[in-house]
Design goal:
This protein is mostly helical. It has one domain. The protein contains 9 helices and no strands. The longest helix has 33 residues.
Length: 242
Amino acid sequence: MVSLSPEFQSGAIAPVECIKTGWATIKDRYWLFLGITLVAILIGGAVPIVLIGPMMCGLYMCLFAKMRGEPVEFGMLFKGFDYFLPGLIAAAIQTVPVLILVIGGDLIFAGFIFTVMPAGRGEGPPPIFWAGLTLFVLFAMVVSVVVHAVFFFAYPLIVDRKLSGWEAIKTSFRAVTKNLGGLVGLIFLNIGLGILGVICCYVGVFFIMPVTFAAQATAYRQVFPEIPQGLAPPPPPPSGWA
């Protein structure tokens, strides 16, 4: 796969501006992007490691096209399968370590509960149980935020710079370390929007998702500016497997 040197800006992410610009980008086609986002999440979640990569690639293709003022149709989502192999590699590298950490954490926490819970009936959990539960939840949150941050730019890099899955992850990590403050701010803003969605009978989460992804695409473009058309790398072969 042909790729362009992945140069990027440092300290470029403005979290609030990302939310505002993301919403401004999709608001006139909001219902289309709501459908695209929900289908991408549903299909990607059906077989996570295998399908989430191409679905995320397709979603970002739609967002980048809208940012360029190009027409966007629902079927564009499935053009993400042109990037099946790099998307699969990125998804596998992202998912497998998380699964190992989650399973290991669950086993440790299960052993902790078995050790500290009282054997007699009618007794409530001791204070150490609640302390352990709090630490476990914090651990899960930290792992989630760290993994999300490291892979933040991976899928956009695959479709925009035509990088391989591994190169996209390495480039994403380098760009994240140079934009950490703004990126963390955006992640927590998105978490805050998600909490508002949960408060709105949970279903509000789904209505916020298109704005969240549009904000992430905006953050990507702040860090990786648009390449002039004549200098852009060519698209991958139709099969996307090379």
